[in-house]
Write a structure and sequence with these properties.
Number of strands: 12
Structural class: alpha/beta
Largest sheet: 7 strands, mixed
CATH topology of the largest domain: Heat Shock Protein 90
Number of domains: 3
Order of helices and strands: EHEEHHEHHEHHEHHEEHEEHEE
CATH class of the largest domain: Alpha Beta
Number of helices: 11
Helix content: 40-55%
CATH architecture of the largest domain: 2-Layer Sandwich
């Protein structure tokens, strides 16, 4: 039986709905923020509660993701007009009062069916992630062994074999190292979402500065210029996931430049009422229009390994990490202007 929370201030409406649902479901009642924290399959809210707890509803739904937690709003026409700006984030379906019992039951069953499907999808996804994680872990040992043996052969017999044999050994060692890199990124990709996401206020200034310092040697060797424009605010983020996002974007900005040119990277932020948009803009080779969606697919590489080494997993990992924090990662530049990526996260002050 599904557990349905009735967060409705109007006592008569709440009682009638409870009586209607009780034969087939477990009915809970409560209209405070603390009531949203329980084991709930569906939340039915009245207009005043939706207005009062809109932010708490959004945060609760995000915390339960990727499992869908449906919220159904029961409201009169005046309340619908009042709450319209908050409905997209906090509410999944709206029923205007008065409503027929048959329609109410049909809408509730539809939302509960969607929730059940989301649970099934998550179970399948978890199984697939576990398989990929296990395989990538088990295959790293043979890859390391291949690298070690190729290196030993070159060190011990390099003076007795010809240049062709040395070339082949180098190719074997390079290929084994690349396999290790792919397996490492694949393990990271499979592990995303398996551990708990801990979001709390993180100063973006400090996070960006840490990443830039990490690439200090590469910046110095390439003559790169990395400019951070203005002060950056605090965001609600998981520090480990935020590091994944920023490391990937700044690394790519330093890497994808034309031969002989020094990278130029501009980092700036924009603050809205509840969100921060961080832009990482380079002046590199850019991304062709036909490839703007392909870059988010795992193992898709737009350039040869010799020109720009990589695994094809960096951007998919970065986008998934941003989504796990309740944010977004998009490409917003036009072809011919380098690449500009936008990370959108919740503003810490906006909770």
């Amino acid at each position: 039986m599904a557990r349905i929370l009735l967060a409705i201030d109007h006592e008569a409406n709440r009682r009638l709905l409870a009586e209607e649902l009780a034969p087939d479901h477990i009915v809970l009642e409560g209209s405070a923020a603390a009531d949203l924290a329980g084991d709930i399959d569906l939340i039915v809210v009245g207009g005043p509660v939706a207005r009062r707890l809109s932010r708490e509803l959004v945060l609760t739904k995000r915390a339960r993701a990727p499992i869908f937690l449906p919220v159904l709003l029961l409201a009169s026409h005046p309340e619908l007009r009042t709450d319209s700006s908050e409905l997209p984030d906090a509410v999944d379906e709206v029923i205007s009062l008065p409503v027929r019992k048959a329609e109410m039951r049909a809408r509730i069953e539809s939302l509960l069916r969607t929730r059940r499907l989301s649970r099934q999808v998550k179970r399948h996804s978890d199984d697939l992630q576990a398989l990929v994680y296990g395989l990538s872990h088990d295959l790293r040992a043979p890859a390391r062994a291949a690298t070690s043996f190729a290196r030993l052969l070159r060190e011990q017999y390099g003076d007795v074999v010809d240049e062709t044999a040395l070339h082949y050994l180098n190719r074997v060692e390079d290929a084994a190292e690349r396999i290790q890199d792919v397996l490492e990124f694949l393990q990271i990709f499979a592990a995303l979402g398996r551990s708990q996401v801990n979001r709390y206020p993180v100063p973006l200034d400090d996070a960006v500065e840490l990443i830039v310092e990490r690439f200090e040697d590469q910046i110095g060797a390439s003559g790169a210029e990395v400019r951070v424009q203005g002060d950056l605010p605090e965001v609600l983020a998981d520090p480990v996931l935020l590091d994944m996002v920023l490391s990937n974007l700044i690394s790519n900005a330093l890497k994808y430049v034309e031969p002989g040119k020094s990278p130029q990277v501009d980092i700036r932020g924009e603050v809205s009422e509840r969100h921060v948009r961080l832009y990482v803009h380079d002046r590199g080779i850019g991304i062709a229009a036909e490839s703007r969606t392909r870059i988010w697919q795992p193992f898709i590489r737009l350039h040869g390994e010799e020109a720009y080494p990589g695994t094809g997993l960096g951007l998919p990992i970065a986008r998934r990490a941003a989504e796990l924090m309740g944010g977004k990662l998009d490409l917003v530049s036009e072809p011919g202007e380098g690449a500009c990526f936008r990370v959108e996260l919740s503003l810490a002050d906006g909770g």
